[in-house]
Amino acid sequence: MSFKPNFLLLDYAIRSLMRRFGKSFFIFFILSLLIFILSSVLMIADAIKLELNTTLKTLPQITLQRFIAGKQSDVPLERVEALLDIEGISAVTPRVWGYYYFKPAGVNFSIVGIDAYEEQYSETLSKLTQRFDMKLLEKENGMIIGEGVKKILDENYYSEFFNFITSEGKWQRVNIAGVFHSDLALESNDLILLPKKLAYAIFGMDERKATDIIVKVANVKEIPTIVQKINERYPDMRAITQDDIRVSYQNIFDYKSGFFLALFIICAFAFFIIIYDKSSGLSSEEKKEIGILKAIGWSSDDILKEKFYESFTLSLSAFLLGVTGSLFYVYALQAPLLRNLFMGYSALKPSFDLPFSLDVSMLILLFLLSVPIYIAATLIPAWRASTLDADEVMR
Amino acid sequence: MIVLHEVCKQFMQGDEEAHALKKVSLEIKKGECVVLKGASGSGKSTLLSLIAGLMQPSSGKISVDGKEISKLPEYFSAQLRRQKIGFIFQKFHLIPHLSALENVIAPLIPENLPVSALEEKAQAVMEQCGIAHKAKMRVNRLSGGEQQRVAIARALVNNPSIILSDEPTANLDETLSMALIAEFETLKQQGVTQLIATHDPLFFELPFVDRIIEIKNGEIIL
Amino acid sequence: MSLTPEIIALLTLDAIFLFFGMIAFVLASRLAFYWNNDASTSLQYSLTKQSYLISTIIKYIFMLKLPLFAFFIYTCDKLSNIIAGAMCASGVVNSVDFGLYLTLFKLLNLYLFGFWLLLHYADVSSEKLPFTRLKFILFAVFAVPLFAEIGLEIAFFAGLNISKIVSCCGTLFSAASSSYISLLFVVDELLWVGLFYGFFAMIVLAFWLKNSVLTIFANAMFLIFAIIALIVFFSPYVYELPTHRCPFCLLQKDYYYVGYLLYILLFSGTFYGMGGAVLSIFSKEKIRFSRLSLVLNTLYLLMISAYPMVYFIRNGVWL
To answer: Do C6 and C134 lie in a common domain?
Structure first.
């Protein structure tokens, strides 16, 4: 068994493909297109996952929510002290936040209440509170808003201030004290930061309660144990850890990619049948050629090998073209149109750059989904061609 | 060199069985030049195809160069064809879209030899046949005579010990036929065993032909 | 069932294997029945043509199965990120009852198909086609584990439950494990090591004596005890951790993917050893590949023995 490739045979195969240029090109084009789409979708999914993982690290380690009758409810502030007693917890921060529906634009703003003296639980918020003077905000009833919010407010003629409608139906005027730009585009574009007192007022919340509680632990590996302890202490509280979020996002992505792939496979299957059909039909010229080759000394095995070289060359080149094309499309052009498959349309979702990550395993996956499948489609037609009778053709 | 022993070949034509060859026995010694005389349909082409290993006899034994080929698996008969036999067909049967050089090399491609060695061999034999100057040209653009020479070169490229020709002059005018006959004479002098199936009378009076065997309705007439 | 792209790729190729496998199975059964090398009938003629199809299909399946086995392990490794508790492929594989059997089945099929191909090449290289009928009977038999494997694989991925917590290799491959793997640890580990080297010595003996049956037996035993000894004794030296005894973690980046090299050496060495000997029994010729197999097996032995040696030299103690 020697596996030395026969270059003359390869040359013959390539030449054969070129001779039937129209047919070959049609198949090559569609194959490349399919691989291009598949590869782009997988790359976008991976890039967004990567971006999300980066975002994830800025999220709190443990978020505690209180559930009454299966619905989320506010958490009494006394619990904060009790929680600090638990071993392993280094910081406990109550949060006041929520969504405010702005009817004229039909969008939700995220509102987060900030306390000037509290330690912020996220780096972004820390940076922001350092840059802007929180105490001033409190005194002057001011807020800091994200770029997306600013844009919407400008469109609705609110340029210096904004009138919130509180839960009691009263107006609450808040001045726009500043606009922030954030590096983490996904997170803060639709964000409004204002003093906690204002937040309580706008939402009509009880000032002795908080929306949820953020817990920071000393040792990341102990999170599951600490969650267990919290649950024992307060059975009505549910803990969401960073890991939970990571797993659920990964699942959504896998689900979406899986769904897309399933659709893709149906298309590929249809294509499979087309290829099979096209390869099966041998023109009389092609049959004659095979007859001649056999007469001058080629065995069925040799003809089969030549057909294999043809299929392999075609599918491999289509694979390379498709993958290169999609690398360019996703990372250089930032994948217009297709990225909305995963991100959805949203007025406030800003664009961000898809981070570059190339996985060898993804290339292998794409290869497995293209080349072997094409070869499978041409296997039986190639065999049929190779077993043609030489003398019948020559008569 | 070539020995046939009571070889029969039947084909299915529709529902009927047609006997192309009936108990043919013959022996051709090494270096002999034998002419197989017979009208079309007499079984000449079938006989040549059987000797070349392109098909297996329905019964009987065939051996070529000491090796029995009647039951040889296709892989081995193709190898034999490549290495020992050169075939000149009535209609040349060149691959039209390939160049002359590529056609000449074609039989040896499965041998997986180094490219340069093959091209050298092909060039040499094409020069011998006087067609080297048209090596890169597509064969469907060559004249009849040029195509004939490419076909001969192809049959000779593997240094065969046996040359089989099926009606080689059927599509040629007299000048080209004489040129081809001269080629056959050269081969005879080189000691190549030849079997020429033809009903062209030009072959029946040649001095270098050792024997003429007549075949009619699938049987050898002595 | 979680449908990651990797799983979809594996299942799609499985579907193709199933389809072609069925065709080959039907044809092979027919061929085994009617094959008559001496006949010149048109039936025999078409059977000959079909035999090409069968061998082409088997070559295709085998060529793909080799990298797919590694890809399967890789997929399990990647899934360990989503399945709670699993930290490497072993956790995922063992999260389903028959996961380990599936892996062993896959390995078995690789060996079986490899043997078939060796037999096939021996067959077509000879003018008399001596093994053709045997080949097709064998394929009809080997098709059963192939279909079983495909079925198991589909069931495996369908049965994966990401919310069920699984054990990681630390607990699986230890004396505390609830599966029969724990039986391995009941015995003193040096016994397994002794058997490992012992059967290697038997391989050398078989090579010297040129005895086929002994070669097959020695290689088979060597394979089994090599894996056991790897789990029980040698792997801790690769990880430099006495409690880490996982055969799968060797394949991860942290250990420079050394597992791939080790397993390739071991599997190909024993494959050629057994295959060459089986061939010689059928063809009544001398044993083929014996030198190749000896070299591969020796390389494996040297490589794996190097780990504890190097550790001892560096640290002065055994784990």
So the answer is: yes
Interface contact A9, partner B, CB < 8 A? yes
* Predicted pLDDT at A185: 46
Question: Within B37-137, where are the H helices?
Answer: 44-51, 74-84, 100-105, 115-128
Structure-block tokens of residue A361: 């395993």
Chain A nearest-CA residue for C72: A365
By CB atoms closer than 10 A (0-12, 13-18, 19+), residue A76 is: middle
Tell me which residue in B74, B97, B115 faces A300 most closely, judged by beta carbons. Answer: B74
Closest Cα to residue A67, out of A230, A212, A214?
A212
- Point out the domain boundary residue: C167, C199, C221: C167
Question: Cβ atoms within 10 A of the Cβ of C110, count?
Answer: 18
**Are residues C173 and C163 part of one domain?**
no
**B28, two tokens:** 């051709």
Which C positions 129-168 lie with beta carbon below 8 A of chain B? 129
Last residue of a domain, one of C167, C202, C235: C167
- Please check whether residues C177 and C319 belong to one and the same domain: yes
Residue A352 C-alpha from the chain's centroid: 12
User: Which of A250, A262, A383 shows the shortest C-beta gap to C82?
Assistant: A250
Q: Is the same domain home to C141 and C247?
A: no
Q: Which residue has the higher pLDDT, A73 or C3?
A: A73
In this structure, the answer to whether residues C208 and C79 fall within a common structural domain is no
Over its C-alpha atoms, chain C yields an Rg (Å, rounded) of: 22
Q: Which domain range does residue C203 map to?
A: 169-319
pLDDT single digits (tens) C126-165: 888 888 888 899 998 999 999 999 999 999 988 887 777 7
Instruction: Give the span between the Cα atoms of A236 and A238, in whole angstroms.
Output: 7
Chain A residue whose CA is closest to C64: A372
Residue A350 has pLDDT above 60, yes or no: no
- Shared-domain flag, residues C118 and C208: no
With an 8 Å Cβ cutoff, is B17 touching chain C? no
Structural tokens at position B52: 């070349």
Q: Which residue has the higher pLDDT, B172 or C69?
A: C69
Q: Does C26 touch chain A (CB under 8 A)?
A: no
How far is Cα A41 from Cα A343, in angstroms, rounded to an integer? 12
Nearest chain C Cα to A254, which residue? C4
The pLDDT tens digits of the residues spanning C94-135 come to 888 888 889 988 999 999 999 999 888 888 888 888 888 888
Mean pLDDT score across all residues of chain C: 86
- Give the separation between CA B50 and CA A121, rounded to whole angstroms: 90
Alpha carbon distances (Å) from C81 to A222, B116, C8, C168: 18, 54, 17, 12
Q: B112 and A293: CB-CB below 8 Å?
A: no
Name residue A62's beta-bridge partners. Answer: A215, A241
Chain C CB contacts of B71 under 8 Å are 37-38
Number of separate domains in chain B: 1
In a shared domain, residues C155 and C6: yes
